[in-house]
Specification:
By secondary structure, this protein is an alpha/beta fold. The protein is built from 19 helices and 21 strands. Helix 6 (124-133) crosses helix 13 and helix 15 crosses helix 18 (501-514).
Length: 576
């Protein structure tokens, strides 16, 4: 039985295909269109999933969409009517998109897929809940979903047992932790729905000196429920997130994206992050008290706040937590497909989520043909020599692009489309940030560590395969400065041989040569661009940046051997 799940129209459009209870392919539209956080209908992602699964519209059993467009449209219309006439400009911009595209999701789905049956729709936060619980390894668990907004819900708390999900409580628009975080993302000069992680990375450079101001704009109940003082916000009626009252309260206008980041901005980020962690903790404690369950499943964009996740694991009431790796809207495609198969059709849960390597991949022959057809110089190496050579290149302070197998589903590079460097060299942080990624110097890098060595190097007692937990670097292991943030923490990815044998063996070889089982792993892209998907994407990124070597499959490319690109300029990208 084949079930196709689809999410789109807001950000991070995606498709995922579940076969007999197991996800065999999943992809985000941005990877094909090269438009970061692409919100358009995921034609390319759907085509990829159907091609890889060898199905067409007539052989698909079920198709589902990750939210309820008409209820969302109702919320938007009612909100604009309540805030009229301030909402006039936003209304005039939004309504044509709804009338031309978003309300016609069923017909678009049928025309793109060839599927003739009934398309199923479930609420947005139920898709989030399903994307975490139904693919988790837990038979029963509490469920917490937190994001900007779905139809009306901005956070839900519930329970999953077997194949059933019950949502017990919710926070409703306009009161939203996700939108609160996005409002500050906007105010600090970053792009909403794209750069919230920058605020999280900026926070450790500041002190939470704006807590009184934060308490003026948000009231937090003992159970984590929040009520925003809407006189400081504009997102419910306008095209901006905040207004002049907000500017006055926090000491000045919104930072221009090109302006210098000042200490005040760092302090605001620190206060926001502290408040976010406190709210998440209160939500989790209240949920635990209500359910008395030992496991927690999380999804929604706020579940990508790995600092809050790490604190929840350390200080919260749950013994174990599963977080959907594509916790934002992309994961909604997984959620609706899983909900149809398990909760609607009653099929048993026999295939928990195993790894995130579900996206497009290229065979050795295809990559060789690409290199030969474009007269690109390379060396072809057998596996053992490839591992030994690459590990030595990293140890010798080269930065290596790493392109292997099927790519990751979700926002993190996990060893299939990665840029790798030596974490022991403190200079590598600035070098990779400024000369290769073209991004701000304050942003930290994540370490990949062998799963069996994680507790030796970090204050973490369990795997973190999806880079969703932050923990402190152990005091006696501070020889990895390029992945140690200013507060002594790191956003950790653990790797084992079952998930990605070649990447695991590369780090084993690096440890054999250096004694260190940790390397820098950052996504294979530049600022404002999606992670590279194809060999051509990888080659262009390699040639336009300061990377020294590129490893694609078994092929090693040395920058010094490459002819100059006809378009030798650095990539043009929008700020994120």
């Amino acid at each position: 039985m084949d079930v196709l799940g689809i999410s789109c129209y807001y950000h991070d459009s995606a498709a995922a295909l579940l076969r007999d209870g197991k996800f065999i392919v999943a992809a985000q539209e941005e990877r094909f269109t090269r438009k970061k956080h692409d919100s358009s209908f995921p034609s390319h992602a759907i085509a990829y999933c159907m091609q890889q699964a060898d199905v067409d519209g007539s052989s698909l059993d079920h198709v589902g969409f990750y939210d309820k467009p008409f209820i969302k449209f109702e919320r938007i219309m009612l909100t604009y009517l309540q805030t009229f006439p301030r909402s006039m400009r936003a209304f005039m911009e939004a309504i044509p998109q709804w009338l031309e595209t978003k309300l016609w999701a069923p017909s678009h789905i049928r025309s793109e897929t060839g599927f003739g049956g009934r398309v199923m729709f479930i609420p947005h936060h139920l898709s989030h809940a399903a994307s975490s619980f139904l693919v988790s390894p837990f038979d029963e668990a509490a469920i917490l979903t937190v994001d900007g907004v779905g139809e009306w819900s901005t956070a839900t708390m519930g329970v999953g047992r077997g194949a059933d999900i019950e949502l017990l409580n919710e926070i409703r628009f306009p009161h939203s932790l996700g939108l609160l975080y996005s409002a500050f993302t906007y105010y600090l000069g970053f792009r909403v729905n794209s750069a919230e992680y920058k605020v999280m990375g900026l926070a450790p450079y500041g002190e939470p000196a704006f807590m009184d101001e934060l308490r003026e704009i948000v009231h937090v109940a003992p159970d984590g429920g929040i009520h925003l003082n809407m006189k400081y916000f504009a997102y419910h009626y306008g095209l901006k997130m905040t207004n002049r009252r907000f500017d006055k309260l926090f000491g000045g206008p919104r930072r221009d994206p090109d302006a210098k980041i000042e200490q005040r901005h760092m302090d605001i980020a620190a206060g926001l992050q502290k408040l976010t962690e406190e709210i998440i903790l209160k939500m989790a404690i209240a949920l635990h008290e209500k359910t008395r369950l030992k496991k927690l499943c999380m999804a929604g964009g706020v579940a990508l706040n790995c600092v809050a996740n790490g604190r929840l694991l350390r200080e919260g009431p749950f013994d174990d937590i599963f977080i959907m790796p594509a916790a934002g809207d992309a994961g909604g495609a997984v959620g609706i497909a899983a909900y149809i198969y398990h909760s609607i059709l009653g099929k048993p849960r026999t295939h928990p989520w195993d790894n995130a390597f579900l996206g497009p991949g290229w065979s050795t022959g295809q990559i060789r043909a690409y290199l030969d057809d474009n007269q690109i110089p390379y060396r072809e190496l057998e596996r053992k020599e490839l591992l030994e050579t690459t590990a030595k290149l990293i140890a010798d302070q080269n930065v290596v692009g790493w392109f292997q197998g099927m790519m990751e589903f979700g926002p993190r590079a996990l060893g299939a489309r990665s840029i790798l460097a030596d974490a022991r060299n403190p200079e590598n942080r600035d070098r990779v940030n400024l000369k290769i990624k073209f991004r701000e110097s304050f942003r930290p890098f994540a370490p990949t560590v062998l799963e069996e060595k994680v507790s030796e190097w970090f204050e973490l007692d369990r795997p973190s395969p999806y880079m969703l937990l932050v923990a402190a670097v152990r005091g006696d292991k501070r020889e990895i400065p390029s992945v140690t943030h200013v507060d002594g923490s790191a956003r950790i990815q653990t790797i084992n041989r079952r998930h990605h044998p070649l990447y695991y063996d590369l780090i084993c070889e690096f440890e054999r040569q250096t004694g260190c089982p940790v390397i820098i792993n950052t996504s294979f892209n530049v600022r404002g661009e999606p992670i590279v998907c194809s060999p051509h994407d990888a080659y262009l990124c390699f040639m336009r940046t300061g990377m020294d070597y590129l490893v694609m499959d078994r092929f090693l490319l040395n920058k010094e051997d490459q002819p100059p690109l006809e378009d030798a300029e650095k990539p043009q990208f929008e700020p994120d």
